[in-house]
Design goal:
With 415 residues, the protein is of the alpha/beta class. The protein contains 15 helices and nine strands. Strands 1, 2, 3, 4, 5 and 6 form a six-stranded parallel beta sheet that branches. A three-stranded parallel beta sheet has the order 7-8-9. Bound molecules: 2-acetamido-2-deoxy-beta-D-glucopyranose (6 copies) and zinc ion (ZN).
Amino acid sequence: MPGRSMWELVLVLALALPSTGQQHLEEAKRIMNSTPVIDGHNDLPWQLLQKFNNQLGLPAANLTVLNDTHTNIPKLRQGHVGGQFWSVYVPCETQNKDAVKRTLEQMDVVQRMCDLYPETFSCVTDADGVQKAIQSGKVASLMGVEGGHSIDSSLGVLRTLYRLGARYMTLTHSCNTPWADNWLVDTKDGKPVHHGLSAFGKIVVQEMNRLGMIVDLAHVSVDTMKAVLNISKAPVIFSHSSAYGICQHRRNVPDDVLKLVASTGSLVMVNFYNSYVTCSNKANLSNVADHLDYVKKVAGAQAVGFGGDYDGVTGVPTGLEDVSKYPALVAELLARNWTEQEVKGALAENLLRVFREVEEVKLSLNGTAPHETPIAFEELEGSCRTSYGYLSGAGTAQRPLAALALLLVLLSVLF
Ligand SMILES: *[C@@H]1O[C@H](CO)[C@@H](O)[C@H](O)[C@H]1NC(C)=O
Ligand SMILES: *[C@@H]1O[C@H](CO)[C@@H](O)[C@H](O)[C@H]1NC(C)=O
Ligand SMILES: *[C@@H]1O[C@H](CO)[C@@H](O)[C@H](O)[C@H]1NC(C)=O
Ligand SMILES: *[C@@H]1O[C@H](CO)[C@@H](O)[C@H](O)[C@H]1NC(C)=O
Ligand SMILES: *[C@@H]1O[C@H](CO)[C@@H](O)[C@H](O)[C@H]1NC(C)=O
Ligand SMILES: *[C@@H]1O[C@H](CO)[C@@H](O)[C@H](O)[C@H]1NC(C)=O
Ligand SMILES: [Zn+2]
């Protein structure tokens, strides 16, 4: 009898003890209570445009009940999301058309989202603001401009977007701008035009350093990545890109670039999109952890982050169905023996470090004047654009045509 009840006790204990999987999940949630995830890229604003034409007051647009998106308020809470770069994405089709207007509208909808749900979101613009929002239990909300076409090749627009709250800009989306090449030039579907950055593209990067806007290299060509990593005074991010060493998709970051990420203190925020994770339309949580492991192995734990790309992609991995699932991914990292410090780095601290360094570079350049040289008029594309300012020849005097025009104007005034 005593023998039997002892075995019963052992059995009961074994059933009552949480499995290691459950233990890791509990541990993940404990860590995330103090260090919630700051994700690099979420396209909810694009969903709000597509579904509701940005009418947040529509009953169906209520972010508490919205249920056919990867993102809503209950899911953000379950997922321990403490910070989010909301993408103010507008498609490449808007280039040379209404890109600037539509970008402003996406920035407006993020701002209105913060205003409408103040108990959930806090729109912030610096690293201190992120930490304060997290401490008060809010989702720190930042804006990332996805594609250089959003500035229409204008440094004035770039500066204005910064003043309105944009804190990163992806230099291209999946199209070249007049000053930078995108990832498609590295595929059979494209040919390099600028072989990285044009002279004006380098000025854009310098101006972003001066402003304190993070440079984002998701979506750009490998030559653009290398050119930026070579000239940027501040570390950069890949807001939503995975590892080319695991899946040979050109949206991913190759090993030689990962080495530059390490040497510059930059950050790769791993994308969960199935096509970038496994190069197929099927993936699971463990496949994503493989990318995180890989970036850690090649570039170091300080170079790893999360950039789920939720609500911007058609297929997400089994186990990472929506933004409520980040703790499951963290549990997987713990199961793979990541230390608590490494996990906290990937969740938030690495991004905060990069953001603070970008802010310090801004401070160190505080005496520098804004770049004023406009892009050459001939480098602009599209036919619906006026040429005010260019006719005088200012800033383009080195160009024979402009010089000739100036001469003609002078002659006509004199005679
Ligand atoms: C959204 O719905 C919730 C639950 O029904 C409600 O409490 C809240 O007031 C609504 N918020 C807005 C902004 O409509
Ligand atoms: C999603 O929301 C719609 C309307 O807000 C509701 O009719 C539907 O039952 C909900 N679906 C689920 C699975 O909760
Ligand atoms: C990096 O910049 C230096 C000079 O600033 C230049 O000589 C070198 O070719 C550049 N490397 C790349 C990969 O662009
Ligand atoms: C995830 O997918 C891989 C194949 O890519 C498979 O080997 C592995 O067992 C899967 N893991 C889970 C937890 O389903
Ligand atoms: C994690 O560490 C434990 C204990 O040292 C070891 O048994 C296990 O194999 C390690 N797992 C991985 C994935 O490295
Ligand atoms: C630039 O920053 C330094 C250090 O913070 C400060 O001493 C200096 O006054 C600033 N210069 C300008 C032009 O703001
Ligand atoms: Zn993207």
